[in-house]
Amino acid sequence: MDKVRVGVIGVGGHGRGRHLIPYTKLSNVEVVAVADVNQRRAEEVGREFKVKYYTDYMEMIERENPDAVSIVTPTGLHAKVAKDVLSKGVHVLVDKPLGANLSEVVDVVRTAKAKGKVLMVGYWSRFSPALKFGAEAMSLGMVGEPYLAYGYLVRRRGIPGSPTFIDKQLSGGRGALLDIGCYILDNLLSLLNFPRPVTVSGATYTKFGRNPEEVKFNWGSWDPSKFELEDYAVGFIRFENGVSMIIEVGWAANVSHVGEVGIYRVLGNKGGLEGRGHEAVTEMT
Asked: Reduced to 3 states, what is the DSSP secondary structure of residue 73?
């Protein structure tokens, strides 16, 4: 059997640790090249893993002709890079979230369908055994008819200071809601079997990111005077099947728990599910 020839676009900590290294452990995969806009990083990783390296991902695609790529760039670049690569007839695994807004996502999905290529968003949390247990309970009718879903993913203090997350362009123009709120949505939607939304409302807040005193309590460092993203968000969604969903997500909040806590709940007329963990559900009852 021929090996799948793979490239990795973006080889910072996440790209190297969660994509590149796991690929090297698969007997049916050959890593042919890596690409990163940081020339020094691209060269170091290329030499470390003995593969070709590029600073231009399209040059990598043209020269190496991989079967598939992982895209592990900043969020604000996901959709553009994915569309570029798919347009060249290459399968794509793109880190979450797929895009910064609905129009970006629709554009990428249409490109994948037009080219007949596989497009997958890297929600590693979807493979949680606890989440799978919950989905099975739902499919077996143990919850009955669901009517309410609730998701909570909040840190006491955890604003990521890296420009990857808080630069308005690199982040896709969104803060906590796009960065970790997407995990809440994906986890709950997978339990509910992805019903069609009919109305969405919500609110965003910036209560900590602009406060100079908060920098020392969070992750990394940033200029509070230039902080433009939300550090907390709430949302309410109504679905076509009558289910309502409430979500809370925060990089920082005055809560009692330490660290990041995730709570996921689905209520039905016969039973209920409650999961706990973080981005991924680690316990489900």
From this structure: coil
